[in-house]
Design goal:
It contains twelve helices and twelve strands. 42% of the residues lie in helices and 16% in strands. Helix 6 packs across helix 8 and helix 8 packs across helix 10. The chain has one domain: Rossmann fold. The protein is an alpha/beta fold and 355 residues long. Strands 3-2-1-4-5-6-10 form a seven-stranded parallel β-sheet, sandwiched between helices. The structure holds nicotinamide-adenine-dinucleotide and thymidine-5'-diphosphate (TYD).
Length: 355
């Protein structure tokens, strides 16, 4: 099976590429990524020499580049992750979110439709366009309730609106053209290789550098956290077994108020970060102005994927957080090079053939 993974140099994408390359030595895994500020080939060092792995640097909005990769590698299935993914950036500058998340998804869908219509399907090789989306398309919950696949779309940020728009296009391509699509809605991910602008890695990096830990508003907003490895296994399951035209919610029943989570991270760092300039770390917590349109609470009901595909999250939060903190402490160079953009040179040195 030949699989295209878009956004495979990002946080979830790099974990997913590594998972797929290792688990399926007989597949061809092609990573298609523009390498924006969030894409980093250094996150893929563990697989870069693998025979079944290929990297193509290109933009999902570039029709010709997308058509070329689909035909060159005879792509059977697509796991579409490429996106602008950070809510705060979408508030500051929504345009790139619309371009990449909506128009880019349209280009991917249209190219897949053309590519698959021009080649005979091979029996036993599955064709799927898996659109990796977010629970944020459902908007915000109050103190009670959970998001199910039947919850109405009610996105509140430019980011979630652009992901919702992409989901609607995916649905339309299934209904109108019978394109074999599936959508997943996952809750907040954490784990290794996450860009230190999202809550957990930002707090870890700021804390060990003795910088303020900015908590938005009253810190009582709730997020439902899942380890990225559990998410990757869910995507693998949906790719192979998800029913076409369906949506699957993915989460690990793990709701935390932001302030409680930040204090927990501080307590872990108090134990394990000997070199921190400021201890205890929670002395660095600073309440700051709230995010505009800040969703109050997310909570995901994953009973459908559990019962239909036998998937469940396996990584407990305490263990997952500890291993993530340890990973960042052991990979400070990765963070520094990511922030400075230094790894971009690594691309031109190592992937000249794809340029
Ligand atoms: P990320 O920002 O870490 O990575 C995005 C990747 O997409 C980067 O490698 C970037 O270079 C690439 N990219 C961006 N624009 C591109 C373009 N025009 N063409 C080609 N590549 C491009 O994001 P992430 O956190 O890994 O999220 C991946 C996907 O999962 C996104 O679609 C996001 O909406 C979704 N998602 C994320 C979370 C989460 O908690 N992070 C939760 C649910 C769903
Ligand atoms: P984030 O990691 O940006 O994910 P999302 O907004 O997609 O859920 O933020 C998670 C939560 O943490 C969210 O409620 C906003 C809050 N937050 C802070 O309080 N301070 C910060 O510096 C950041 C980045 C987020």
């Amino acid at each position: 099976m030949n699989i295209l993974i878009t956004g495979g140099a990002g946080f979830i994408g790099s974990n997913l590429v590594a998972h797929m390359v290792r688990k399926y030595p007989d597949y061809t895994i092609v990573n298609f990524d523009k390498l924006t500020y969030a894409g980093n080939l250094e996150s893929l060092k563990s697989v870069e020499g693998a025979k079944n792995y290929h990297f193509v640097k290109a933009d999902i909005c570039d029709k010709a580049a997308v058509a070329k990769v689909l035909s060159e590698f005879k792509i059977d299935s697509i796991m579409h992750l490429a996106a602008e993914s950070h809510v705060d950036r979408s508030i500051l500058g929504p345009e790139e979110f619309l371009n990449t998340n909506m128009h880019g998804t349209f280009v991917m869908l249209e190219a897949a439709r053309k590519h698959w219509s021009e080649s005979e399907p091979i029996e036993a090789i599955r064709r799927v366009f898996l659109n990796v989306s977010t629970d944020e398309v459902y908007g915000s919950l109050g103190a009670v309730g959970t998001f199910t696949e039947a919850s109405p779309y009610a996105p509140n940020s430019p980011y979630s609106a652009s992901k919702a728009g992409a989901d609607h296009l995916v649905r339309a391509y299934f209904k109108t053209y019978a394109l074999p699509t599936v959508i997943t809605h996952c809750s907040n991910n954490y784990g290794p290789y996450q860009f230190p602008e999202k809550l957990i890695p930002l707090m870890i990096m700021n804390a060990i550098e003795g910088k303020d830990l900015p908590v938005y508003g009253d810190g009582l907003n709730v997020r439902d956290w899942i380890h990225v490895d559990d998410h990757c296994k869910a995507l693998d399951g949906v790719l192979h077994q998800g029913r076409l035209g369906e949506t699957y919610n993915v989460g690990s029943d793990n709701e935390w108020e932001n302030i409680r989570l930040v204090r927990t991270l501080c307590a872990i760092l108090d134990e394990v970060s000997e070199a921190s300039p400021v201890k205890p770390h929670d002395g660095l917590i600073k309440y700051v102005k709230d995010r505009p349109g800040h969703d109050q609470r997310y909570s995901i009901d994953s009973s459908k994927i559990k019962s239909e595909l036998g998937w469940e999250a396996l990584i407990g939060f305490e263990a997952g957080l500890r291993s993530t903190v340890k990973w960042y402490l052991e990979n400070l160079g990765w963070c520094q090079r990511l922030r400075s953009g230094e790894y971009k040179d690594y691309y031109s040195e190592n992937y000249k053939d794809n340029a």
